[in-house]
């Protein structure tokens, strides 16, 4: 419990999960990383803005001392990224990055004619190339607290423009050739490497952002145990994270999430597709939601839902067995339902979670329930179960329209899609 509290700030029934407890496994391919970073570079600006603002550049040209500080990113555009995955590390390369930065400018000449001026200088880079090695480091036994480290960063900038806005801009324009040469050396040296490394780290942190207790509705206590207990793993095929995927009931006073099923996760065979992002989910992850859902009494129109269980996956869907009490008479219904994936917007910042849905719509067995009762059961379950759905943060810009569902065996389902 002490380890769990220190690592996560919250307690769980399963304090020390292992790979054998992982009912949700997520894989992102190199192409998926590339597409995600190119698509979401704007979201990373805030992370690297601080490092730009902290830069202080000082140099002297033709007897004029020039200071540049408090830089602000005005525009950044990434059109090409290449990722090469290796075991335990990756090579990341950004090519032809367009980057516009505006610095506060101060110039001073301490000899005649004793000039002093302030203003701004815009720096427009059109072909910024960055390459770095990325690895995952664990600073302590809390695998969840992994850090992304970049090393051996190289940069190359050939073409850029500078523009001045100040009273002495005519003077600065006249010596701009010397200023450009000096800045080019800086940008292809330590300052450029620092900027490139920060940009790469920001992009990868954006990719791996997650909540270890995501909830569909944060006004309600139903959450998903999404602790990355094995951290982030890099292989030659993909990056991988594991979580138990079990639903739990969060008690904010106890700072504890209750609700793990005492069941064993079955082994899965190695299976990958060419999809950018791939989720592999064991039936236990769904059953934990049903289990938590039934902690409350579920009665409507004289019908009581006593049990809901995903017994197995078939080639075309999940077999769901529902036990009812209808006016004192037991009924057992069997459904064959597809696993569906949707996106749900969880806040105003544009953060989407993936939502994996199973409902009760395709009844296989005969029943004495009338058609209207069957429809009422489906509607009741749909409305009352939404907060218990299995969700995953974040959704990586997944295209749900192109999601492909593959039922691997009786126990596992594979959902693959693309990041566009």
TrEMBL record:
Signal peptide span: none
An annotated Gene Ontology molecular function: lipid binding
InterPro entries linked to this entry: Bactericidal_perm-incr_a/b_dom, BPI/LBP/Plunc
Coiled-coil regions listed in the entry: none
The name this protein goes by in its record: BPI-like protein
Lineage: Eukaryota, Metamonada, Diplomonadida, Hexamitidae, Hexamitinae
């Amino acid at each position: 419990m002490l380890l769990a509290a220190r690592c996560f700030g919250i307690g769980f029934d399963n304090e020390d999960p292992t790979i054998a407890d992982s009912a949700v496994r997520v894989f992102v391919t190199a192409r998926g990383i590339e597409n995600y970073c190119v698509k979401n570079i704007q979201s990373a600006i805030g992370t690297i803005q601080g490092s730009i603002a902290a830069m202080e550049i000082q140099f002297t040209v033709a007897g004029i001392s020039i200071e540049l500080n408090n830089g602000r990113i005005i525009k950044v555009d990434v059109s090409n990224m290449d990722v090469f995955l290796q075991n335990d590390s990756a090579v990341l390369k950004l090519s032809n990055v367009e980057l516009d930065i505006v610095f506060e400018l101060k110039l001073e000449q301490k000899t005649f004619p004793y000039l002093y001026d302030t203003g701004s200088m815009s720096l427009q880079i059109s072909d910024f190339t960055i390459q770095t090695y990325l690895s995952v480091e664990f600073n302590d036994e809390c695998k969840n607290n992994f850090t992304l480290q970049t090393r051996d960063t190289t940069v190359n900038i050939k073409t850029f423009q500078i523009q001045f806005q100040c009273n002495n801009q005519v003077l600065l324009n006249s010596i701009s050739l010397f200023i450009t040469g000096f800045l080019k050396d800086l940008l292809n040296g330590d300052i450029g490497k620092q900027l490139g490394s920060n940009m790469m780290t920001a992009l990868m942190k954006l990719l791996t952002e997650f909540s270890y207790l995501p909830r569909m509705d944060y006004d309600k206590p139903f959450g998903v145990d999404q602790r990355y207990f094995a951290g982030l793993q890099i292989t030659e095929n993909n990056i991988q994270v594991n979580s138990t995927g079990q639903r739990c009931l969060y008690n904010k006073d106890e700072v504890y999430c209750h609700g793990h099923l005492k069941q064993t996760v079955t082994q899965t065979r190695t299976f990958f597709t060419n999809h950018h992002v791939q989720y592999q989910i064991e039936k236990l992850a769904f059953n934990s939601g049903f289990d938590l859902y039934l902690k409350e009494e579920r009665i409507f129109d004289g019908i009581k839902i006593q049990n809901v269980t995903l017994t197995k996956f078939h080639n075309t869907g999940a077999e769901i067995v529902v036990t009812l009490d209808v006016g004192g008479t037991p009924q057992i219904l069997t459904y064959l339902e597809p696993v569906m994936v949707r996106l749900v917007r969880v806040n105003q910042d544009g953060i989407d979670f993936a939502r994996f849905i199973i409902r009760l719509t395709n009844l296989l067995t005969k029943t004495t329930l009338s058609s209207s009762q069957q429809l009422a059961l489906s509607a009741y379950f749909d409305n009352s179960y939404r907060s218990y759905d299995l969700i995953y943060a974040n959704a990586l810009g997944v295209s749900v329209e192109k999601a492909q569902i593959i039922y691997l065996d009786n126990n596992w389902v594979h959902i693959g899609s693309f990041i566009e």
